[in-house]
Amino acid sequence: MTDFQTARTSLGAQLRQLRVDAGLSGRDLAAQLGWHPAKVSKIERGKQTASPTDLRHWTHGCGSPETADALIAQRRSLETHYASWRRQLAYGTRPRQLAFADQERAARHMRILETACIPGLLQTPAYARAMIRRGMRLHNTPNDLEDAVQARMDRQAILETSGQSVEFLLWEPALQVRLCEPTDHAEQLTDLARRIAHEKLDIGIISIAARIDLVPAHGFWVFDSHLVLVETVSAELSLTDEDAIRPYLAVFRELSQVAARGQAALRIIERHRHAVAR
């Protein structure tokens, strides 16, 4: 269970206790608030996050309005672990790129695993443009495409900064998934090969033929071993609890040991580049 889900479940348990202490059944409270009974049940079981207004209505309905402010503060803390893309991108994609750049500059050591796409710090402009355009369409956000692409390209300056370490792991399917036009895809793979050939960056490719005991189920970014970012379809999860971070470090370490590097990695990339060219 993630930090976010644990926090939401805890909040739901506190709300349930308020209801029980007030001598109300779930149906009683729902009827009083004009809600469907299922909403009360989902909130109490941590399946739905109560809004600040919901919390005020809930505490008032249970005769404990004085507890509302503390619960709203707790919910605000919960939100720091779960930020929906719609909310993050409400003013465009460029501001989120700038915020991400701030996180990267503050880190001394980053570990990046991607399983289905090339990570932003290694993307070409054309590949980045296709990725960002897809996100704008999915989340119906303001169109600041070119500014967002430039902001993503500017972030790559971090790779030339001395004193900072960045490790990249890419599962082989990330080279195969067709997320842009074939010519742009081929250009992206060529650029990735160039970076590996220059040996300036630590880039490993996890072959689909590699024997692994841990499945790279999804991508993630680790910042200095105290923050993990996980991108889902609808939101970004920020994990800060040591117990939640430890498995990500273990997964990265084990996958890194089987990853191909140097000439072995170049051969994998070249195979897919030729496939795209054909």
Automatic annotation (TrEMBL):
<dbReference type="InterPro" id="IPR001387">
    <property type="entry name" value="Cro/C1-type_HTH"/>
</dbReference>
<dbReference type="InterPro" id="IPR010982">
    <property type="entry name" value="Lambda_DNA-bd_dom_sf"/>
</dbReference>
<protein>
    <submittedName>
        <fullName>Helix-turn-helix transcriptional regulator</fullName>
    </submittedName>
</protein>
<feature type="domain" description="HTH cro/C1-type">
    <location>
        <begin position="15"/>
        <end position="55"/>
    </location>
</feature>
<dbReference type="InterPro" id="IPR043917">
    <property type="entry name" value="DUF5753"/>
</dbReference>
<dbReference type="Pfam" id="PF13560">
    <property type="entry name" value="HTH_31"/>
</dbReference>
<dbReference type="Pfam" id="PF19054">
    <property type="entry name" value="DUF5753"/>
</dbReference>
